[in-house]
Write a structure and sequence with these properties.
OB fold (Dihydrolipoamide Acetyltransferase, E2P); six-stranded antiparallel beta sheet; four-stranded antiparallel beta sheet; 10 strands; about 15% helix
């Protein structure tokens, strides 16, 4: 169910860095928000941690790449990665077509459930800038004048 604000489903929590979190059966399922994927453009590649890896809150979680930019994923929570969405390796474009369901990124056990309190509600996320930091993958060569 989408929130009336357009931020995304109201039952999710959101990070200021453009990720959503759904808690199900004690696990945190993490994905990229619709706003973040729209800023990124068509996803062409994704790098995620291996199952078993430990991620810390506000640490590097992975990278989503588009044709000319990349988005560095910042983990919204601390915990162990239990599963990675293998479908994204073959079909990274799912991030663009189904950001809140089929394109979940990772499932993480929670080291500290209290970290959920630092995340935003759908309404708070809608009011925030919530725009990902994109970096250019390729810089244009300098103009040599010929």
């Amino acid at each position: 169910m989408e929130s009336s604000s357009g931020a995304g489903p109201a039952d999710l929590k959101y990070s200021a860095e453009g990720l959503w979190v759904r808690i199900r059966d004690g696990l945190a399922i993490v994905g990229l928000t619709d706003r973040a994927q729209a800023q990124l453009g068509c996803a062409v590649d994704i790098e995620l941690p291996r199952p078993g890896a430990h991620v810390g809150r506000s640490e590097h979680l992975g990278t989503v790449e588009a044709s000319k930019v990349a988005f560095d994923l910042v983990s919204p929570l601390s915990g162990q990665v239990l599963a990675v969405n293998q479908r994204l390796a073959e079909s990274p474009e799912l991030i663009n077509s189904s950001p809140f369901s089929d394109a979940w990124l990772v499932k993480i056990t929670l080291d500290d459930p209290g970290e959920l309190d630092s995340l935003l509600s759908a309404q708070q996320y809608a009011k925030s800038s919530g725009v990902p930091s994109l970096r250019r993958r390729f810089e244009a060569p300098p103009d040599r004048g010929y």
